[in-house]
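RECORD TYPE: inverse folding
INPUT: structure tokens
STRUCTURE:
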């Protein structure tokens, strides 16, 4: 299936795109992120708009520093459910006793110390062809934290399997579907144009900022990704958010779930 001629596809990771309507080049942005401790592997994974936002904050506040990156790999098992790939075994190497499954989905966290508050990115990256119709992702903290109004963000990207360029998938509707005192949940599906591509990969992130209400706040955050297994994303999905808890359930259709958590 071909791309519709009416689509305007905007690559997000080219140097030419990064210099338009921005005050910093991608090279300068990457240098700022390295200086605050962002690993090169993380910088390589982030798209330019995401990098630029953090670099602009770091340029204004010299006390900002990158705290942690952690990730967890999942594969789709024979029953269509997401299952964690055994640690140190995400290469698909065959052994005499079994075949280690290859990763289909990677979930990760990036935590940034913004001096008086923290910024948390919950990331997802599909390594195989996927449709995001109906997919959801949420994050939650415990009662020791205050989520900062206006800090919520979500963005996603997609690309054909044979392409090296990621295209902008939009901001997930502009706001979370659910906001709770402990966290938030977003619909992370791509914008309609991606449906014109038969085989594609997808990635994105959700984000919020939080400040401690207790000087000894328990520094932990959790996330849950919910993949709608139905064609066209027709499952009826609901979410319950509580202290360090995000739970997606469905009253109809079929879903599969993956989770990640980290202390920092």
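DESIGNED SEQUENCE:
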């Amino acid at each position: 299936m071909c791309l519709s001629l009416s689509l305007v596809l905007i690559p997000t990771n080219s140097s030419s795109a990064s210099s338009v309507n921005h005050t910093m080049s991608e090279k300068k942005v990457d240098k700022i992120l390295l200086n605050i401790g962002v690993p090169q592997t993380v910088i390589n994974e982030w798209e330019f708009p995401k990098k630029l936002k953090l670099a602009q904050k770091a340029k204004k506040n010299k006390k900002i520093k990158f705290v942690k990156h952690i990730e967890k790999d999942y594969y789709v098992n024979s029953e269509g459910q997401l299952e964690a790939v055994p640690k140190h075994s995400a290469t698909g190497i065959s052994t005499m006793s079994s075949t280690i499954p290859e990763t289909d989905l990677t979930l990760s966290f990036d935590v940034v110390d913004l001096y008086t508050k923290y910024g948390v990115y919950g990331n997802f990256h599909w390594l195989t062809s996927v449709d995001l119709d109906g997919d959801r992702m949420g994050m939650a903290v415990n009662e020791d934290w205050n989520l900062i109004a206006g800090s919520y963000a979500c963005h996603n990207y997609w690309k054909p399997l044979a392409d090296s360029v990621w295209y902008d998938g939009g901001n997930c509707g502009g706001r979370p579907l659910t906001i709770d005192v402990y966290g938030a949940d977003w619909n992370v599906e791509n914008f309609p144009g991606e449906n014109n591509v038969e085989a594609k990969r997808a990635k994105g992130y959700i984000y919020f900022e939080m400040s401690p209400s207790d000087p000894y706040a328990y520094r932990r955050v959790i996330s849950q990704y919910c993949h709608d297994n139905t064609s066209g994303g027709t499952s009826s999905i609901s979410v319950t958010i509580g202290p360090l808890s995000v739970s997606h359930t469905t009253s109809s259709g079929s879903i599969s779930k993956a989770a990640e958590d980290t202390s920092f």
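NOTES: Residues 1-8, 14-20, 93-97 have pLDDT under 50 and may be disordered.
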